[in-house]
Amino acid sequence: MLKGLIGKKIGMTQIFDEKGVAYPVTIIEAGPCYVTQVRLPERDGYAAIQLGFGEVHPKKLAAGELGHLKVNELSPLRFLREFRSKETANVGDKLTVEVFSVGENVDVVGTSKGKGFAGAVKRHHFKGGKKTHGQSDRHRAPGSRSSGTTPGRVFKNARGAGHMGNERITVQALKVVLVDAERNLLGVHGAVPGGKGGLVVIKEARKQ
């Protein structure tokens, strides 16, 4: 069985162990997900399983998406994601949080919160200028970014101010501490990227 789910971040809480130690936990509403397509090496060149999550009204989807799902007689699903896997599956199969177990490690993929345009101190943790000798406006300045005649320019990819956040981020090897099949809830030890309600992908950890 494929060990992968699409879910929605609910928020953070804490769970106490038998010794009374509190652990930060992120709660994710994971699944139920449905197999919407199976990729085969002999036909598609690679092996993968496509999952769908989040039933919506048909008007919320484009005609191409609706056609893709109607071919296999599936209900309209808002989010589709592919998981590279050689596991066997049939279109229409249902996956729930029970594919994971407590104590198992998972990787969680999400989109970080967008921070807009940010300065170098906030974006790259620059130290800033000195706060003495009459400087009144250099406390959060990036400072010099290049030398003069040689090279006489700023190299590409030099760190500086710019757009921060809203990037795809993978947090690896988070431990599963809660599996609630009745409410489709999954709890992982630690933080995952994004804000409340953000879409996340949970899959088997690549690094144990």
Name the descriptors.
8% helix, mainly beta, 4-stranded antiparallel sheet, 3 helices, 6-stranded antiparallel barrel, 208 residues
Give the count of helical stretches.
3
Ends apart, CA distance between termini = 19 Å
How many strand units?
12
Structural class given helices, strands, pairing? mainly beta
Low-confidence stretches: none
Q: How much strand?
A: 35-45%
Lateral arrangement of strands in the main beta sheet: 1-2-11-10-7-12
Q: What is Rg?
A: 23 Å
> Main beta sheet, described?
6 strands, antiparallel, barrel
Which percent bin holds the helix content? under 10%
Order of helices and strands: EEEHEHEEEEHEEEE
Average pLDDT, rounded to a whole number, is 92
The coarse overall form would be extended
Fold topology:
Blueprint: E1 4-16, E2 22-30, E3 33-39, H1 41-44, E4 48-55, H2 63-70, E5 77-84, E6 94-95, E7 105-111, E8 116-118, H3 120-124, E9 162-164, E10 168-180, E11 185-189, E12 199-204
Antiparallel strand pairs: 1-2, 1-12, 2-11, 3-4, 3-6, 4-5, 7-10, 7-12, 8-9, 10-11
Structure, explained:
- The protein is mainly beta and 208 residues long.
- It contains three helices and twelve strands.
- The strands form three sheets. The chain has a six-stranded antiparallel β-barrel with strand order 1-2-11-10-7-12.
- A hairpin with a 5-residue loop joins strand 1 (4-16) and strand 2.
- The longest helix is centred in the N-terminal third of the chain and has 8 residues, at 63-70.
- The radius of gyration is 23 Å and the shape is extended.
- The mean pLDDT is 92.
